[in-house]
Specification:
By secondary structure, this protein is of the alpha/beta class. It has 2 domains: about 210 residues, Spore Coat Polysaccharide Biosynthesis Protein SpsA, Chain A; about 70 residues, no CATH class. Helix content is about 45%, strand content about 15%. It has 10 helices and 8 strands. It has an 8-stranded mixed beta sheet, sandwiched between helices. α9 runs antiparallel to α10. The protein is elongated and about 95 Å long. It starts with a strand and ends in a 5-residue tail after the last strand.
Length: about 325
């Protein structure tokens, strides 16, 4: 069986395709591998360049439009045929030369997933600080102590990768999704290069989405199999607060004061119910979406084209 499926999502990365292809070929000469490029709706010549630089180890999956990095990674993982799945960015900031070292560590220490930790990160100050804050927040909420959730360079055993259930912006939470399956997680420092071409296509604008997904993962991790333990205490606290307010207003009424025009009861009830409804509707909608896709074996993306390179003569 083939050893490595290298999944690379790309969006308008025409400049990097030739260089990354050659570096992968040089770094992995001793391995049986395939490169699965996933073109996430590029508007430049990315797909054409991938085809021009392809060989028998190359497959290109072109999505009909830009679905986002998570969907692109999911498409690549679904197409993977090897024993291990490697995920990495297509912007040359992840170095293919680190893949053999990661794979050796995974095998020697028998990890299910090994994730890179970017050493001497070359991103700017504006990207590094929010990333550090996000890493600490994710670790504290999830309890999964991965140092660098933002590093795309990872190796996963294929059965783990294919059962991740990637939706929304969950690609950065791959270690948590793997841990939910009972996977063992390892880490290793990897090199990180400055971006030479273009700019990031998947930027910081997704921060609020990431925070929402983190809350969702917290719910799945802690309460997915026992949701009453989440909603029960919340409901009892809310009910207790409402009863306390009602009792207070009853006493005030019995003392002869008019409570009809007081905003306390209305404001308290509206704010508490609105908060519960928003959170509950969000969770129910997420569960309904998963049921919709998984019960019908639907995908969160549509494939426009699959290209398979041929052996050069």
């Amino acid at each position: 069986m083939m050893e490595l499926s290298i999944v690379i999502p790309v969006l308008n990365e025409e400049e990097t395709v030739p260089f990354l292809t050659e570096r992968i070929k040089t770094s992995l000469q001793a391995y049986d591998y395939e490169i699965i490029w996933v073109d996430d709706g590029s508007s430049d010549k990315t797909a054409r360049f991938i085809k021009e630089w392809s060989d028998h180890r190359t497959r290109l999956i072109s999505l009909r439009r830009t679905y986002g990095q998570t969907a692109a990674i999911a498409a690549g993982i679904d197409a993977a045929r090897a024993t291990y799945v490697v995920t990495m960015d297509g912007d040359l900031q992840n170095n293919p030369e680190d893949i053999p070292k990661l794979l050796d560590k995974l095998k020697q220490e028998n990890w299910d997933v090994i994730t890179g930790v970017r050493k001497d990160r070359k991103d700017g100050f504006i990207r590094r600080i929010p990333s550090r804050i996000a890493n600490r927040l994710i670790r504290s909420i999830s309890g999964v102590t991965v140092r660098d959730y933002g590093c795309s360079l990872k190796i996963l055993k294929t059965p783990i990768a294919k059962n991740l259930g990637l939706y929304g912006e969950l690609h950065r939470f791959i270690p948590i999704l793997a841990a939910l399956q009972g996977a063992t997680l390892g880490e290793m420092e990897v090199s990180h290069s400055a971006r030479k071409y273009g700019r990031s296509k998947y930027g910081l604008g997704r921060t609020l989405n990431v925070v929402s997904d983190l809350f969702l993962l917290f719910f799945f991790q802690k309460y997915f199999r026992r949701p009453i333990h989440f909603f029960g205490p919340l409901g009892m606290v809310t009910l207790g607060s409402g009863l306390a307010i009602s009792f207070y207003l009853l006493v005030v009424k019995l003392m002869g004061q008019d409570i009809g025009g007081r905003p306390l009861l209305t404001l308290g009830v509206v704010l508490v119910l609105a908060g519960i409804q928003f959170l509950t509707f969000g969770l129910i909608a997420e569960l309904m979406m998963r049921i919709y896709y998984e019960s019908q074996q639907k995908k969160i993306y549509e494939v426009k084209e699959i290209f398979v390179g041929k052996e050069s003569s």
